Amino acid sequence: MLKEFREFAIKGNVVDLAVGVIIGAAFGKIIESLVGDMIMPVIGAITGGFDFSNYFLPLTKAVTADTLAEAKKQGAVLAWGNFVTMVINFAIVALALFFVVKGINRLRREEAESPAPKSPPRQEILLEEIRDLLRTR
Predict the structure, then answer these.
(1) Percentage helix, strand, coil, to 5, in the chain?
(2) I want to staple 70 with a disulfide (CB 3.0 to 4.6 A). Which of 40, 65, 116, 120 is the partner?
């Protein structure tokens, strides 16, 4: 049983999957920073300081706070601004992954389409055969 597990764990697919998950997690952090630190501030500047993260809809009258963190302490809120931020984050991640996969597929296609070495012309093949025949005599 241990031998079977070792064979399973050493297979390329398992290792590839593990590497993919680790790289995906790191890539996710990069995209989070891209969205939170670069794209959302630009959108906020274009829209006149519009910051999605603190927009919410109070679901009870007890919620009177101005920030989402304080409002959550007071009662139930619908944090639609945070949801919009996550949707934009997802769209950017999907777009970035699309371009990464498209680039990898292009590289694979170019590698697969690289021309095979050309065979020598028929005359050279005949001359080599004649040479080989003369050597055997």
Answers:
(1) 75, 5, 20
(2) 65
pLDDT, tens digit (0-9, with 9 covering 90-100), for 59-103 = 888 888 888 888 889 989 998 988 887 887 788 778 877 887 898
Encoding tokens for residue 19? 């590497």
Strands of the chain, DSSP E: 57-58, 77-78
Q: What angle do CA 33, 35, 40 make, to 5 degrees?
A: 125
Percent of the chain whose pLDDT exceeds 90? 2
Instruction: Give the amino acid at 83.
Output: F
How far is 76 from 57, CA to CA, in rounded Å? Answer: 9
Q: Are 80 and 57 in contact (CB under 8 A)?
A: yes
